[in-house]
Amino acid sequence: MATLMVDFITSLDGYGAAEGWPGWWGMESAEYLGWLGEQPEHTVLMGATTYRLMAQFAASGEEGVDQALTPLSKVVFSSTLTEPLEWANTRLVTGDAVEAVRAMKEDSRIEMRTLGSVSLCRSLIKAELVDRFQVVVFPVITGATGQDRIYDGYPDIRLDLVESRTFEGGLQLLEYVPTVLDGPLGTTGAAS
Questions:
Q1: Which residues 6+ apart lie within 8 Å of 49 measured at CB?
Q2: Which CATH number fits domain 4-180: 3.40.430.10, 3.40.1280.10, 3.40.50.720, 3.30.1370.110?
Q3: Residue-level pLDDT at 67
């Protein structure tokens, strides 16, 4: 059975992007980009908005995106995109994402990871399909320009830390095992 990791990059205040800021908030380091390139083979899961953005980055030769992501198998969940998709190694799924991912987990042994895709990740977390939750926190607050608040609409979740790392420039990698809660910790029946 395949494992599923939700994988986000965020500002300290929980935004996935910010208007006027470059990718990675202009703070990607050689160490971080090198680490990205060393990740084991996995299937990338994303929604239409993330696909459009990342395919554009890959087509323009954006450092780190084309080399790291183009060779990987990618699955896009969308009711608005149509085939053929231009980004190499990308498959379109137009049906229910939760059911498709549940089947993919059962049928594959290759790890799956999300890329951006806030609403897709929220659905997968709520369905309790996520085995790991990884976030790289960039040392910037984008309160005035931030877009895509990541955690709005999420259920309550307990996160058990299993790995951490600091990259040059102060980027923090935090990896957790998530447990969706029925209520606040300490209340009866909190873990689902």
A1: 116, 117
A2: 3.40.430.10
A3: 73
